[in-house]
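yo

u said u wanted the structure for the complex thing, so here. seqs first:
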Amino acid sequence: MTISFSINGERRTVRIEAHESLLDVLRREGFVGVKVGCHTGDCGACAVLFNGRAVNSCLVLAAKADGAEILTVEGLGTGDRLHPLQEAFLDEGGVQCGYCTPGMIISAYGLLSRNPNPTEEEIREAISGNLCRCTGYVKQIRAIQTAAERMRSGDE
Amino acid sequence: MGFDQVEIVLRPTSIEEAWTQLMERGDAARFMGGGIDLALFAPRSVKTLIDLADVPLSGIDEDSSGLRIGATTTMTEAIESPQLSSYAKGFLRDVLRQVAAPLQRNLATFGGTLASGHPWSDVVPALLILDAELTIYDGSERRLSLESFYGERAASGRSLIRAIHLPPIPEGGRGAFVSFTRTAFDVGMLNVACFGSVADRRWASVRIAVGGTPGLGTRLRSVETLLTDQAPSEEGISQAAEAASAAIDARDDRRASASYRRKLTARLVARCLREIGGLSKGGAR
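structre next:
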């Protein structure tokens, strides 16, 4: 079957099999910032923004994406310029092995797009579906706080 | 298991069209809400998925008969809705906040959750104590309690959940919920939901549901009756807790033994009832 969706602001039409997950299709289409972790919706490495909400793309049937708006980590930032979230993850040491980072940043982006000034509790809740085995989460929380501050003050 | 064997995905735009598609495809077809459950557990025999995303079934409305939650409303939409924040002092909203994580709650729908009816579901006992009803469609529309929905379904057949109805809360009523988990990432090994009010120093509208026994959440009406019209007391709560412990259909599974579940039931029912009855542990306040 053929589906058509908007990804990172661009329209795309792709042929898919009925049984494929959105994760499989996005990676085949070259969006390899979407990581394969558990494939059972536990780890959050495959998180994408789907119609404005962060979801595990391994749990979404690709056919569901027909007509959808999708944002992956590749769609953040402009040209050579990183998005404030990406910048803050680097500045605060929120990246170690990096495997969870794209999903973590997508969850954070979903939060900040609705709530530009979240409490620490709200940040913890927003990334509670993203597993990180390196950092212990403290630096990522700080990175999201830093990004939120910079985005609020327009200092990118 | 999962999507692997799926050959066809349909996207009907009305409930009647969806129902016709299900009837035509028979047992090889399933309705799909968010699709989480199908991604993880769809049996090999499922070849057709009928995605309800384009059927207008989402949204929360409020009127004199209570709240109506459309079947494809997600857990996140419900948590964020002003209606659910004010309903039963935010009881259901607070339960939903404990379910999984935003990455799942942004997909999971009420209809999908109730249709799956997993025994460990935290949502089922919470809705049971709110006396939730469903509108279902199986060629024609009818309304029935969530309790009879599970009773009927075991006996007969298939239907499409259209909406969940939550009746107005009895004056002064409040709910309490606890899900007991080994780790934050596992489902509960038992969950308890209680509802009640205390008017003129007497228990009223007491409702108790226990799930993950490891069976599906069930109301314990015999225990509810024990408390009704009694004055809230530590002794009464202990008796109800022991009665609940004896009443559940406790069995062993990999998460807990039957005897552990009975002990847990007594503790958690007592904890919930104390919270509702305004009793601190150790005596009346």
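The first strand of chain B starts at residue 8 and ends at 10. Chain B touches chain A through 30 residues (CB under 8 Å).
cya
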